[in-house]
Design goal:
The protein is mostly helical and about 190 residues long. It has 10 helices and no strands. The longest helix has 23 residues.
Length: about 190
C-alpha cells in the first residue's frame, strides 16, 4: 500500500511540475529531461510512469475527468458534472490552451480529451446497463455529444469564456441527446 501511495505521489509530483512548466513554455518546447529534473526524478523514473510527455498530458486530463465523473450518483447530477468540468477547464485555461495549441496529429490534446470523455461517459452508461452491451446508437450519440461539447469548450476558452460556466453547462445539458438522458438522469 505504501508503495502505491509513493507511486501515486511521484506521478502527481511529475504532473504538477509539468503543469508549472507549461506556465512558462509551450508544451512542445518542454523536454522530458526538464520535467524529470524539475520534478526531482530521473528520466528513467519519468519513463516508468509515462511513455512521453503526451502520455503525461492525457494522464493529467484523465485524473481530473475521472474525479469529476466519479461523483455521479446520489444528489450529484449530470448538470453538476458539466459545471465542474467547465470550471476545471476555466481554472486551468492556460494549460488547456497550451496543450491544445502545441500538440498535433496522434498527440493532439483535443483528440485525447474527446476519447477520454467518450470512454468515461461510455463507462457511466455501461454502469447503468449492467451486463448488457451499449447499443450502437447510444455509443454513437456519446461520441457525437463528447466531440461537440469538447470542441465547444475549447472554443469558449479561446474566446476567454464569453458566457458564464452556468450558462454553458445549461447549453451542454440542453444539447444532451434524448437517447442518453435516461442513463444520466435515471
Amino acid at each position: 500500500m505504501q508503495q502505491q501511495k509513493s507511486a501515486a505521489s511521484t506521478k502527481d509530483r511529475i504532473a504538477d511540475t509539468f503543469l508549472a512548466l507549461t506556465e512558462q513554455k509551450a508544451v512542445n518546447k518542454i523536454t522530458v529531461r526538464e520535467i524529470a529534473e524539475a520534478s526531482g526524478v530521473t528520466a528513467v523514473t519519468f519513463y516508468n510512469y509515462f511513455r512521453d510527455k503526451y502520455d503525461l498530458i492525457v494522464w493529467i486530463h484523465v485524473r481530473a475527468a475521472s474525479e469529476i465523473m466519479g461523483k455521479i450518483g446520489g444528489g450529484y447530477k449530470w448538470r453538476d458534472t458539466l459545471l465542474d468540468g467547465i470550471r476545471y477547464f476555466s481554472e486551468n485555461r492556460a494549460f488547456m490552451l497550451n496543450a491544445l495549441c502545441h500538440t498535433s496529429g496522434q498527440d493532439s490534446f483535443i483528440r485525447h480529451v474527446e476519447r477520454v470523455n467518450t470512454e468515461l461517459l461510455t463507462a457511466e452508461v455501461k454502469n447503468s446497463l449492467g451486463a448488457k452491451p451499449v447499443p450502437p446508437a447510444v455509443q454513437y450519440a456519446i461520441k457525437v455529444y463528447c466531440s461537440g461539447t469538447v470542441r465547444a469548450m475549447f472554443d469558449c476558452l479561446m474566446d476567454e469564456m464569453p458566457i458564464s460556466a452556468e450558462e454553458l453547462a445549461q447549453i451542454f445539458e440542453d444539447c444532451l441527446p434524448p437517447i442518453l438522458r435516461g442513463f444520466l438522469y435515471p
